[in-house]
Amino acid sequence: MDYETPQFYRVMQYAAQADRDVVDMVSGSPDWDPPATLRDGLRAYADAPADDYQYPPSVGLRPLREEIARRRGVPVEQIIITNGAGEANHLAMAGGFEAFGGTEILLADPVYPYYAGRANFLGAATRYVAAETDGQLDPTALRKAASEETSVIVVNSPNNPTGAVYPESAIREFVAIAEDCGALLVSDEVYDHFDYSGEFASALDVDSEQRIVTDAFSKTMAVTGLRVGYAIITDDDLRDRARTRHMLTTVTGSRPAQYAVAHALEATPPSYYSGVRERVRGRIDRLTDALDSIGAEYTDPDGGFYVMARFPEFGGGFDDVYELIDAAGVAGMPGAAFGESFEDWIRFSVCTDRVETAAARLEAYFE
Amino acid sequence: MDYETPQFYRVMQYAAQADRDVVDMVSGSPDWDPPATLRDGLRAYADAPADDYQYPPSVGLRPLREEIARRRGVPVEQIIITNGAGEANHLAMAGGFEAFGGTEILLADPVYPYYAGRANFLGAATRYVAAETDGQLDPTALRKAASEETSVIVVNSPNNPTGAVYPESAIREFVAIAEDCGALLVSDEVYDHFDYSGEFASALDVDSEQRIVTDAFSKTMAVTGLRVGYAIITDDDLRDRARTRHMLTTVTGSRPAQYAVAHALEATPPSYYSGVRERVRGRIDRLTDALDSIGAEYTDPDGGFYVMARFPEFGGGFDDVYELIDAAGVAGMPGAAFGESFEDWIRFSVCTDRVETAAARLEAYFE
What we know:
homodimer; 367 residues; alpha/beta; Aspartate Aminotransferase, domain 2; 2 domains; seven-stranded mixed sheet; four-stranded antiparallel sheet; 15% strand; globular; Pyridoxal phosphate-dependent aminotransferase (chains A, B)
């Protein structure tokens, strides 16, 4: 995989060069505003004394860690603030791959491509477990794929790209599988504020030293560019590894971003989160209504920003996506970019205020 | 080395628990203000549209890279914005260790402890070249230590902890040694704005694909907590490695920090830099005057924030430093924390507005 020009750039470039107007449903970056309180936090930081411009602790600003600890119900010592969920996942996967025996990292297919990229980067082999057609990850299938060669299992709920929210029973079983085969479960919960089912279950609710929860404010507060995430690590050895790797590779995260997020966590009213969630959900509903009327198959999202769809007599490769750009004026991501099991599908992100236009265009094209 | 509680914390904790007032000359974090323009940049970012809160390019914001390219006289493509000089050094050392044959990383002694920590973290053996008593690194000694086992050589000018500024002839020879033994020269120039000798030479001035220059705005703009640094990498393969590692470990740096630094680079008058430099130099002069009157040996700094001093009939271990805290009310860093060749010395940082008090206390104690 070529990480410098990730596959979604290919699609976005094609769309940018198209002869017509195209609705961008490729990117997963929120197109809505961060909380006003976050901007207030940045303004307050701009006036802060000189001392506040120097290194924060390597593990992150204490008030931010304390607020996260309170909300997630864990001791503050277990929290490391990272450069987004990306670094949190890297620290967790790298530490788990070192600490547990085994040559393999187990991933779901379709997969968020960076998990695969990180596994390759670590020199780990990857083994994939195909998701069900509704996007769920069957614990029985995961258990069948796990072995003593498994060092790390990465799961993501609400899921990118399928929108599945794994039930508590599945999360519990994923942790049990990690324990049974001597591996680490990494549970990436970065879309946790976008659960439409009320069924979201955190791996934190399963008591185990063999699970690490990663998360970030990138989606929750619409600030993918601030790079504020965290890992919650219960096991002392895994936590030491993550702290050392963090200190020697990035030293510490950026302070104005941490400061602003800490302020926003305290001051943002619940209506911000519910308002954004309802808006995203409304967009998903509009898109799935169109898919219904077209007669397309789709993973009905319980959470997240994405819908995977399979159109009648239509594929999910780059050529199909290009055709949809040219003929319908809608750009999605080829399912083939996420693995093999959904290669006839196309992922649509609803991070655009033009979902209505896109839905109407798809209806016109496929009907 | 225990990176979670770095050695300087031990000294700072001891100082904090002392029964008396202690001048902190341990930390290298500037105690002065960042440019007002940098605060203006943060305020402007606080008002920026929602789009500006999303992922910047992985290699960094284009205007920031362009301004650095202009100032350093290199093509913009060679620049990767990193999470401080720390990440830049990590990317350079890790990539060099992978790309060049050899098991060793060559470092100066006394050494900035993070270089040694990063080498250990990469699984590299370390070989040290003792600096001269004036803090200079003799190219002949470096050449003698280099071999086909050398994969990376790290130099730092102006130097932490000695204050030495390496002359152009030495920098040129360091690059030649790297080329001759099939290794990478990493030149960390993070103190480049604090050259009092007018003799500072950048490794950029030596045309070679076997050198990487690392730098940051942490010291230049007194913002160690913003985490904005960069690497300049001429060789295509080394640059690809750094970009991939950067993308898969941290994804990208924090955007408000990059935005604010870009604004400050454009808008800060030269008087800010010269004013800060003269202030630091004045503090160094006051300290070295005291050392002269005491009859202490010291590395007369040509640059940077630090003075290494050896007092008559006094050591440079933790016990000596603790004695100086209790008896004189001045806290420095044990020379032993930086290696073997200066283990009878103590490093004093002038990142405090109480250098006058410290100088007077040292004079009173040693005279």
